[in-house]
Design brief:
By secondary structure, the chain is an alpha+beta fold. Helices cover about 30% and strands about 30% of the residues. The protein starts with 12 loop residues before the first strand and ends in a 5-residue tail after the last strand. Bound molecules: adenosine monophosphate.
């Protein structure tokens, strides 16, 4: 009988909830470490299925399917934050779910997210819970114009939010929430948007990647660029926020925090906007500009492996290919310094993320 091949981890198979491009890139990164992935997603056409060792096509509330899935994996992770709490709890009773249920609970609700950040002393826009039109009138009286009304749950890429510029907007904005519990936030006159990505291990050690600046087009991320145009001390402050949030959540895996960068008379200021308890689109540049990507960092963390050195060896721009922009991907293959990553989606739709291109060049600060 031959000896089994030693694995660097007691974890051999990772279950991934969600079958989109993030799940696909997690499975690919895990494979490089000898980890197998089983992807669980209700959608038959999930891009992550192509690269996974196993697939489960079932609803997130299908307890029989969840129980069978838990039998086949050593740990469960997820690629989206709206995993139902009951699904996470059901799985967690059978197999470790990493990041844990606290990271999910905090980030699923904008009110608990902002409250959590404020309690940590991390600045946020002023905010108030809004459940009725009366609440909205009271909240706007305190926060002032302009402001933005957002649903507390299930908002992404600008969906479920309305800007309020004057009193005439109030009723329409409230109706747009369709009765969903909401949050009013003061408008932040930011100079740019940045984000920070921290990976934290089972042992509590963490690494934080360099800080990208993010440019959106029609509410969808279009470019991430590193280095970001900000002061070194602001960059350090952003990275410290990443580590603080990861620690306070007891997070295991990658967490991303979206931040606004403000220019004030006193200098640059950071305002935290959103926590994503998962790998994030604004970290795709790490694939090409760091020795270890955010995806590998996440898989190492959830598998209980040592984390990596997150250092960046190149300057980089990540461009998202959205909808029709992915019609002629060959042109990116011919471009010097460009690395193309396609998600294998079979249908192009407007606003759909189809792939990305990383463009690297030597670090300007090392020439
Ligand atoms: P979110 O869904 O919270 O990530 O918001 C989507 C986008 O809307 C952000 O990336 C910002 O560009 C903008 N935005 C959200 N909240 C605010 C705010 N309080 N002030 C200014 N812009 C905002």
């Amino acid at each position: 009988m031959s000896d089994p091949v030693p694995s660097p981890s007691a974890v051999r198979t990772v279950g991934i909830l969600g079958g989109g491009q993030l799940g696909r890139m997690l499975a690919l990164a895990g494979a490089r470490l000898g980890l197998k992935s089983v992807v669980y997603c209700p959608d038959v056409d999930s891009p992550a299925f192509d690269v996974a060792a196993g697939r489960v096509i079932a609803a997130y509330d299908d307890e029989a399917a969840l129980a069978a899935f838990a039998e086949t994996v050593d740990v469960v992770t997820y690629e989206f934050e709206n995993v139902p709490a009951a699904t996470a709890a059901f799985l967690d009773a059978r197999v470790p779910v990493r990041p844990g249920t606290r990271s999910l609970a905090v980030s699923q609700d904008r009110l608990s997210e902002k409250t959590f950040l404020a309690e940590l002393g991390i600045p946020t826009a002023p905010f108030r819970a809004v459940d009725t039109l009366d609440h909205l009138h009271a909240a706007i009286a305190e926060i002032g114009f302009p402001a933005v009304l957002k649903t507390r749950r299930f908002g992404y890429d600008g969906k479920g939010q309305v800007k309020i510029s004057d009193p005439d907007d109030l009723e329409h904005a409230f109706e747009a929430m369709k009765g969903a519990p909401s949050i009013l936030e003061g408008w932040v006159p930011f100079r740019r948007e940045i984000s920070v990505l921290t990976a934290r291990g089972v042992d509590g050690a963490s690494i934080t990647f360099d800080v990208p600046e993010n440019e959106h087009s029609r509410h969808i991320l279009k470019f991430s660029r590193v280095p970001a145009d900000l002061r070194p001390e602001t960059r350090d402050a952003a990275m410290a926020i990443g580590a603080r949030v990861a620690d306070a959540l007891g997070h295991v895996g990658v967490v991303a925090i979206e931040l606004f960068l403000l220019e004030t008379l006193e200098g640059e200021r950071l305002i935290a906007n959103e926590i994503a308890p998962r790998v994030h689109n604004s970290g795709h540049w790490t694939e090409s500009a760091c020795l270890v990507s955010q995806f590998e960092a996440h898989m190492r963390a959830v598998a209980g492996l040592p984390l990596a050195d997150p250092r960046r060896h190149s300057d980089v721009e990540m461009e998202n290919l959205i909808g029709d922009e992915a019609r002629d991907p060959e042109r990116f293959l011919a471009e010097a310094g460009a690395s193309l990553h396609l998600y294998g989606k079979t249908e192009i739709r407007p606003g759909r993320k189809m792939g990305h291109v990383n463009r690297i060049r030597p670090r300007a600060d090392r020439r």
